[in-house]
Amino acid sequence: MKKLSCLLLALIMCLALGTAAFAEEDNWKIAILTGTTSQGEEEFRAAERAVATYGEDHIITDTYPDNFMDETETTISKLISFASDPDVKAIVMCQAVPGAKAAFDRIKGELGRDDILLIAGVPQEDPDVISESADIVLYTNEAKQGDTIMETCADWGIDVFVHYSFPRHLAMETIAARKALLEENCAALGIEYVEATAPDPTGDSGVSGAQQFILEDVPAKMEEYAGKKVAFFSTNCSMQEPLQAAVLEQENAYYPQPCCPSPYHGFPASLGLEISVGGDDTVALQAIAEKLAESDAAGRFSTWPSPVNMTIIDVGVEYAKGYIDGEVTDKNDADKINELFQAKCPGATVETYTNADGTTIDNYYTVLLTPVDFNDYLS
Questions:
Q1: Signal sequence span per UniProt (predicted)?
Q2: I need a labelling partner for 210 at 20 to 30 A (CA). Which of 23, 112, 244, 310 fits?
């Protein structure tokens, strides 16, 4: 009887330990920090999509302030709060606005959380800076967009290229590199390059002031360059909707792509379309093409065939899940990163970033897709 009691006790203890181990293995969380819908709806919706996929028990989300330049400490505190939860095994931040590096350093230092996988998407701190603190950095290949944007403009026979930006953005290494290539290509193609300084949406005039500036300046530029084909590009997300709307109204105005190329970046709102952000990309492209065709503008707009910022969050979350499960054994697995991007965007060009002095940053990945011709999506 005594032996039987001991066996039963041992069995109960094994079951308890097994249950506890299973509970521990299943008690993982991935935290996602994005902007609000006014500064970056795609990222916000991508975070919602991750919650829908894995559930609120495993995906926790928050947003950084719209005026993130003046509220860096708020951004940092939200990231620190994520990492203070021992069940959080990975953080995906997109866009990785200023404060990301400081927070990541404190997470690894003050909190001692070297176990957390830190992924920075669309960083606004320079590559050398953010790559020292993040385990993985994911971004569009902004520099090479200086080639693809100009290839589109050359096909359109553009005479003038207007580049809307502001000092904060132009101080960023990758945006500066794209700007330099745009200027170089304009000179080679005989296109007049115009640098137009717009209000910073994080400044005193806010998002609404920056948007109003675009709505007023585009017609003014078209009047200034009357009779010429003028392409407009802005480096800021919140300016895309007014820029698209303004270009649509001007017969000789052209829009080569959003700053964060996507079928959903600005288009649904500017065209008055009921498109589900993050739905079927082909359906979205067809709807946009048909709406543009109503204004005889299908040949004056372009974008990328998939939403790059949403894809970055999708890839970040899937990579993090693989890391938590043990499928990914290295925090920086280049083959896995490429595999995930190809699964989301077949044909994507994924490469590591090389800075101005020729140094390759092996944990900083950039992605480039081929621009679309909306005429190809007309039935």
A1: 1-23
A2: 310
User: In this structure, are residues 160 and 182 in contact, taking their beta carbons and an 8 Å threshold?
Assistant: no
**Contact predicate 133/105, CB 8 Å:** yes
CB hemisphere CA count around 147 (13 angstroms): 6
Q: Which two tokens stand for residue 375?
A: 């005429």
pTM beyond 0.70: the answer is yes
Cα pseudo-dihedral 129, 205, 40, 272, rounded to 10: -150
CA distance 100 to 95: 9
pLDDT over threshold 70, residue 22: no
Q: What is the spatial distance between Cα 35 and Cα 44, in angstroms, rounded to a whole number? A: 6
Tell me phi and psi for residue 376, to 5 degrees: -70, -15
pLDDT given at position 225: 98
Long-range (24+ apart) CB contacts under 8 A made by 211-215 are: 211/238, 211/239, 211/241, 211/242, 212/242, 214/164, 214/239, 214/242, 214/243, 214/246, 215/242, 215/245, 215/246
Q: How confident is the model at residue 308 (pLDDT cuts 50, 70, 90)?
A: confident
Greatest extent of the chain over all pairs of C-alpha atoms, in Å: 101
* CA–CA separation, 56 and 198 (whole Å): 40
178 backbone φψ class: left, alpha, beta (φ>0; ψ -120 to 50): alpha
**Contact at 8 Å (CB) between 212 and 140?**
no
- Locate 4 and state its tokens: 């039987």
Confidence (pLDDT) at 13: 53
